[in-house]
Amino acid sequence: MSPLCLSTMYARADYLDGDWHAFAGLARDAGCSHVEASHVTDEPGLHALAEIGEPPLISLHAPTPRERVNGRWNSELNLASTDEHHRRLAVTHHLRTLQRAVDVGARWVVVHLGGAGDDMYDEERELRRRFDAGRWGTPDIDRLREAARARRAASRPRAFAQARRSLAELLAEARRLSITIGIENRYHFHEIPDPDETASLLREFAASPVGYWHDVGHAEVLHRLGFHNRSRWLQELLPDAVGIHLHDVLGIGDHRAPGRGDVDWAPIAAALPAEAVRTLEIAPGEPRDAVLTAAPLLRARGVLVR
To answer: What is the pTM of this model?
Structure first.
């Protein structure tokens, strides 16, 4: 049976009150065999999870542990930054995660490769506002989307080259440490990689310990905004995925507990490899009961291997 994890994203739920033993107990009650440390997990939390040890840590979402860097969280560091000092800082924090994975006995590290720019484009922000407001049929939706595409195309070559450099550095260390890196598809349009970039990187680094890590919500939201058809991810990349973040989507709001949105699970179940790591990545505002029913629901949909 493939591993089923609960991400520590949910450990911030108010009722858990920072109690790592309570979180570990919830993971066990939810039918999870392992835990994934989210990039919101700080050093004391990571240490506590390793000490508790049941369920064991199997994956870390880089950069872990969470800390402040020059007034920002290290999760905001951009591996694709065209500012070389900033990129080097991002690489340093991701290398630290690889070593921490070894320290706690994890086997996978999930990586965000940065973006063509540090922030969401204004055009995407406006598209999201209109979607949420129910004003999706206005005439300039296509214009906004094309303007975002033009912005990304202009800044993408340098940013993608930097992302590739960063990945090469991380993979050299991952190989030495016997850790596999999962490249995750992203939530915002400016972020790297898109489907073509993912395929290109996986071809180039085919001999390295790297694979595709699919995020259900990210793919679904960018599909609904009209940027990337979800079928590109599901048909071309998901069949070879090493891991998946499982959460539901309502509108363009993701990280809902499975069953509390309207994702079509059938094509995911059909394409997902049996051995891929499955991680429930659920927002802390979701109810406890929905966490407990996530695994049975996904098992009934064929997403979890019996």
So the answer is: 0.96
